[in-house]
Design goal:
Helices cover 68% and strands 11% of the residues. The protein is mainly alpha-helical.
Length: 160
């Protein structure tokens, strides 16, 4: 039994006509997300990053050399408004992790690029991030991880 089981038992007692099974599934996902996010944020904080700054730097890094994208391309990978993305880029630029460069293909546009310091920071952070993810999933048997991954992939695809 986990903490969600106690909540479900209470609802089944108080409202037996309701099917609370989905509440259990979604409640566990939310609670797991909270625990996992806390661990991941702790790892990123050791590198002076937040989840949102990590997301931008990691997107630039995985785009391949020369590690630059248009703000629109960055925006396409995030679930935020353009104003929020601009603010995040501004903050990363202020601390020297990214720079804005003229876009040679669009004279009015810019590209957001990792600086040398930004590349160094994301290299260290992504290594630690992957180590944290391995630690967080290590107790789950590989077959369970693969099955859960397949189930979640299918479910997520229905939303996306």
């Amino acid at each position: 039994m986990d903490s969600v089981d106690a909540i479900l038992a209470q609802w089944r007692r108080e409202r037996p006509e309701l099917d609370v099974a989905p509440m259990g599934l979604l409640g566990r996902l939310v609670r797991l997300t909270t625990h996992l996010r806390r661990e991941i944020e702790h790892t990123l904080a050791r590198h002076g990053l937040t989840a949102s700054s990590f997301d931008i730097l990691a997107t630039l890094r995985r785009s391949g050399a020369p590690y630059r994208l248009s703000p629109g391309d960055l925006l396409a990978t995030a679930m935020v408004t353009s104003g929020t993305m601009t603010n995040r880029i501004d903050q990363l630029e202020k601390i020297g992790l990214v720079e804005r460069l003229p876009n040679p293909e669009d004279g009015r546009g810019v590209l957001v690029a990792l600086t040398a310091i930004g590349l160094e920071r994301i290299e260290a952070a992504v290594t630690a991030h992957v180590e944290t993810q391995i630690r967080l999933t290590a107790e789950m048997p590989e077959t369970d991880r693969e099955a859960l991954d397949a189930l979640l992939r299918g479910w997520l695809a229905r939303f996306e």
